[in-house]
User: Which sequence fits this backbone?
């Protein structure tokens, strides 16, 4: 009898424990598909790229037909990448691109967001969708569309410029970088605008009512209330833009077919792509990819640290 009572008590004691274990395991079961895809599509390729960046591939024969082997290269691939003046020039080029393009795009996105969220705005939903629409167009398609406005003989802009005595060369060595910047700005301004609009919608209506009672003009409201309160959205937008700048790839790759000024190492990503698929040098390509990732992290972290310091001061 005593044994039966003890057994029943043990069953009652272990039942809540089983239920608790099930509750603790449920989140991991739900997260398992995402985690599996994350490992296969993000974490795995990153680890593979880091490993390849420290290896050197040896090919026996002219095309490797006699065998392919790999050995540990240490930091030789990184030294070769950082010693390549073309790769360093590509990094400098995208930094110049970002210094000019990111602030211009951020200003455009902020102005559009403030205009659409003003009390006098008409059809804001329609214009939000219209401004966001370019982001839905793939970068390759957008670049092809814009190339028709850049190529002489096809571009109505160039033809009109010739009528007034202007010789415009959108694809020349001095202008092609800014032609790419125009495509990127056209594509991503609406995306960044929506980030800022989301932040504007979180501002309590009581603040606007208090400003209205105080007789603040719309410009005063924008400068003194809205801009300070949307600072987190602006910071997020700039961080995304910094990362995107260092990943510049599709636009110059497509414009290479119509612009001789765009060489195979015009941007860091183009250089890594060329080393990987034109020269089959995956060690150098992986090292360049890691350098790009580290540069994006350092610049983003540096910008966040700078904005946090200014916010506290």
Assistant:
């Amino acid at each position: 009898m005593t044994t039966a009572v003890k057994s029943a008590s043990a069953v009652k004691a272990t039942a809540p424990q089983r239920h608790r274990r099930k509750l603790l395991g449920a989140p991991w079961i739900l997260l398992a598909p995402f985690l599996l895809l994350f490992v296969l599509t993000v974490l795995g390729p990153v680890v593979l790229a880091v490993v390849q960046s420290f290896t050197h591939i040896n090919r026996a024969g002219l095309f490797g037909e006699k065998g392919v082997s790999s050995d540990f290269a240490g930091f030789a691939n990184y030294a070769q990448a950082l010693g390549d003046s073309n790769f360093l020039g590509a990094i400098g080029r995208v930094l110049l691109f970002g210094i000019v393009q990111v602030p211009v795009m951020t200003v455009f996105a902020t102005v559009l967001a403030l205009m659409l969220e003003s009390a006098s705005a008409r059809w804001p939903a329609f214009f939000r969708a219209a401004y966001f629409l370019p982001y839905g167009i793939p970068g390759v398609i957008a670049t092809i569309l814009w190339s028709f406005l850049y190529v002489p003989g096809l571009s109505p802009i160039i033809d009109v410029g010739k009528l007034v005595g202007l010789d415009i060369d959108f694809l020349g060595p001095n202008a092609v970088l800014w032609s790419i910047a125009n495509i990127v700005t056209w594509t991503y301004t609406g995306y960044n605008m929506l980030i800022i609009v989301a932040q504007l919608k979180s501002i309590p209506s009581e603040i606007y009512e208090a400003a209205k009672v105080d007789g603040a003009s719309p410009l005063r409201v924008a400068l003194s209330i809205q801009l300070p309160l949307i600072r987190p959205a602006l910071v997020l937008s700039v961080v995304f833009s910094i990362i995107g700048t260092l990943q510049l790839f599709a636009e110059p790759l497509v414009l290479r077919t119509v612009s001789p000024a765009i060489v195979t190492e015009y941007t860091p990503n183009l250089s890594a792509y060329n080393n990987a698929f034109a020269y089959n040098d995956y060690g150098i390509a992986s090292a360049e990819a890691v350098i790009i990732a580290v540069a994006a992290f350092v610049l983003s972290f540096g910008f966040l640290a700078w904005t946090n310091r200014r916010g506290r001061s």
